[in-house]
Structures are given as C-alpha cells and as structure tokens.
Amino acid sequence: MSANFSFDESNLVGEVIEVGVTNLNFGSVDAPNLVPVTYPIVAGQNSFDKYVKGAFSGSFTRVDNFKFWKASGSYVTAEGCSFSGSVAYVQPAQALNGDAAVPTAEPTDPNVAIHYDVFGYIDGPANSGYSKKTDYCRLQLQTGVTTPGGPVNQKTFCLQYDEQ
C-alpha cells in the first residue's frame, strides 16, 4: 500500500477546515475551492492568504523530505506568489504577509515542516499518535498596478515528499 495525499485548507475566524480541496485558486475572498473569475483580485492588491496542510492517510511507514515549489506556469507582469512552509494559523487576510517568494525550481533542502522542523517526518498510522499532516503552509498571490486585468496564467504547485 502507499500513502494517500490531499490538501486541506483552513479559512475564516476560528479556523473552518475544508478537507481535500479541489484547487488552490487565489481570490478576493477567504474561501476554499475558488472560481477566480467570480472573486477577482484587483491589480495592485493581494489575494487572501491560503493556509493549507498536506494530509496523509493510507498504509505507509514514513513520509518525509517535504519540498514545495512552483513547478510550471509563468508569472505575468508584476505578479508573484509568496510562501512559508511552517506558520501558525491566523485568520487569512489580504495584507502583504512578507513571506519569501515560492521557489520556482525544486529546493535542495526540505522547506515544509512537521512540528516546526523541516527535517521532520510523519510516521504511518500504526506507528504514531501524531497528526498525519504537515505544518501550515501559507501562500499568497500578489499583483502590482501594472498586472494585466483578467485571468492570469495557470500555475502548478508541487509538494514533493519521500515515502518509505
């Protein structure tokens, strides 16, 4: 058997968790599974933060070496995306969060933490009483006043991990 993976997203005051989100689309509201055309981001503003965890289930011994990056898709003028691989949950906001840019190539070292340790791991269900989730990853799309209106280019984000 192997590990099953999904992203869980947390939103709103008090942390409402959406298990197994279908997309990580950014928008002008704090909600999971967004349709961007319905909730566009005004040029020069930021999306609401996305707080996501990688969630694991199934039969596995251990997962570790968690690396997050933008695997494909180009940014348009004055567009960027920030990322932190280990933060505490706070109500998502549109204010600039100050995190570093999402890596655009596979990082050399892990950048997503387990219990605030980027070299942490998750033991399989039979081996641990801990949560089977990564720490929170915070993402935010930022735009500049020169970012063109309308849909931006689709991007593919990758959360890679090793499984034993």
For the structure shown, list the relevant keywords.
164 residues; mainly beta; Immunoglobulin-like; 6-stranded antiparallel beta sheet; 38% strand; globular
Outline the structure in words.
The chain contains no helices and 9 strands. It is an all-beta fold and 164 residues long. It has a single domain (3-163), classed as Immunoglobulin-like (Sandwich), CATH 2.60.40. Strand 1 (3-11) and strand 2 (16-18) form a beta hairpin. The protein is globular, with a radius of gyration of 16 Å. The model has no long low-confidence stretch (mean pLDDT 93).
By CATH, the architecture is named Sandwich
State the order of secondary-structure elements, H for helix, E for strand. Answer: EEEEEEEEE
- Write down the Rg: 16 Å
Low-confidence stretches: none
Instruction: Determine the N-to-C terminus distance.
Output: 11 Å
* DSSP E strands, number: 9
Q: What is the oligomer described by this structure?
A: single chain
